Predict the structure of CUB and sushi domain-containing protein 1.
Amino acid sequence: MNDSVELFDGANDHSRLLSSLAGSHSGETLPLATSNQIMLRFNAKSGQSARGFHFVYQAVPRTSDSQCSSVPEPRYGRRLGSEFSAGSVVRFECSPGYLLKGSSAIQCQAMPGALAQWNATAPTCIVPCSGNLTERRGTVLSPGFPEPYPNSLNCLWRIHVSEGAGIQIQVITFATEHNWDSLEIYDGGDMTAPKLGSFSGTTAPALLNSTSNQLLLHFQSDISVVAAGFHLEYKSLFELEQEDGVKMSPVKRLNFKPPEKLSELVEQLLRAEIHSDVCVAGPRCPAPTS
């Protein structure tokens, strides 16, 4: 028999059962109690130990025909709105790297002859085991982060930024089961692209740079033993330019002839569109425009 936690809507186990939990749960909002007391009963019957549990509770106003129950903030996210009267709308969003599971907005509705109630349950924030990431900046987390990732994962994340741009990945934390659970990063949109690396254990470079505007991340875990997982941040780099086989920093360059007099330089700068880098005439600069 599994170990379990039971929560009762009152001072003893003769009260209404609010919830019975066993196995793995994270970030859930349990049903609201109707009284000012809750009893929690923990049953350990399996003979095996596990990580245990962590509950957070708070006192909230009782509901009425014009007031819904208080809505907590989702774990790894936030609630937008603190008004819980009938007709009010509360919205939710997740921290970077997490995905909202459930409704992004819920509304308190008045019910004829009954207590006001929300039209949907509050959502949770989870780490997806896949994704297509197209923003200029983003976060990739191992499923379950910051808790250890599960067994038997096969996850794919595709990062695709603007044409001509590059991608830089910064490794914030990295820990997987050495030699068995690995993260492979491909310098392109699929697994036929060159591999930037395959990383396992606690060894991973601080920075990784693509040569194209796409990256594919493939994470696999085996059937036993897990670890803390990983936290990666990526950002889009400016357009990459190729000259003489050398990758150059992607900036739009300003080209002008070296002036003989300061007044000529000032005149050229006033006529030109000024950018962050200036390329003075030389072998690596395109021919100056008139």
In short: The first strand starts at residue 4 and ends at 8. The CA atoms of residues 77 and 94 lie 4 Å apart. The radius of gyration is 28 Å. Residues 240-245, 247-256, 272-284 have pLDDT under 50 and may be disordered.
